[in-house]
Design brief:
single chain, 84 residues, alpha+beta, four-stranded antiparallel β-sheet, 23% strand
């Protein structure tokens, strides 16, 4: 998994979601199937500008941050185990 996530910065650093992240998301969602319909690469990519979607790693979890109209929120983390 470390090699797969090598292009994703460690929290608290983030990077914008780009088309180059498609393979990474496909492999991540294959290993950790989404529990909500919003967690598809296509959906996240389509809304990336409206919601300013950014990605980061926190331990073994993929974190997605969204910023809109002065407010920020996180999607549920993607991964397994506990964040300590």
């Amino acid at each position: 998994m470390d090699e797969l996530w090598s292009g994703v910065p460690e929290f608290p650093q983030f990077k914008d979601l780009t088309l180059e992240d498609k393979t990474f998301f496909h492999q991540t969602f294959t290993q950790f199937p989404p529990q909500i319909s919003e967690f598809t690469f296509t959906n996240l990519f389509i809304w990336r500008h409206a919601y300013q979607i950014k990605i980061s790693l926190l331990q073994n979890f993929l974190c997605l941050l969204s910023e809109q109209e002065g407010s920020s929120f996180f999607f549920p983390p993607i991964g397994e185990g506990d964040v300590i």
